Amino acid sequence: MRLVNEKQRTNDATVDVFNDFYNFKARVNGAEYDLVYSYFKTIFSEDLAARNFTVTLFEVSERSQLPILDLLDEFKSKTSLEITQTLCYYLNNIRSLATLLGVQVTVTPNQFVARNILS
Q1: Does some domain include residue 119?
Q2: What is the pLDDT of residue 113?
Q3: Long-range CB contacts for residues 28-36, cutoff 8 Å, separation at least 24
Q4: What residues have CB less than 8 Å from 44, skipping those under 6 apart?
Q5: Residue bearing the bigger pLDDT, 77 or 117
Q6: Taking the CA atoms of the chain, what radius of gyration do you get in angstroms?
């Protein structure tokens, strides 16, 4: 007979994170996921925001080949606005150069270049 507190040996301690919009899927360590998610849960009042930031940080970690715990340590000393700015910086480095997050000034192309662009 199994005990209540006995660990199930058939399940590993990993979590599947995914973002359907950007088609990102990864299998991560469950302890690391819990650590990152609990940190963002203390920062943001909404559960959805905490989950989205958690998945996004794992995406940045995987695509930039930086350890997730190093990224988390960088975020721990920042306010929520600074967290958003830092995450925009990392996302802008792994995304297409045609889309920039967190840029307040609209980039206007040179007049001669702009008229040669076909839409």
Answers
A1: no
A2: 67
A3: 28/58, 28/68, 32/68, 32/69, 33/58, 35/69, 35/72, 36/68, 36/72
A4: 50, 53, 80
A5: 77
A6: 19
Torsions phi, psi of 6, nearest 5? -75, 135
DSSP state of 101: S
Number of domains in the chain: 1
Whole-angstrom CA distances from 42 to 13, 35, 50, 60 are 23, 11, 8, 20
Residue 114 CB partners (closer than 8 Å, separation 6+): 108
DSSP run (H or E) holding 66: none
* Amino acid residing at 111: Q
**Domain range holding 56?**
14-114
Nearest-angstrom CA–CA distance, 86 and 40: 14
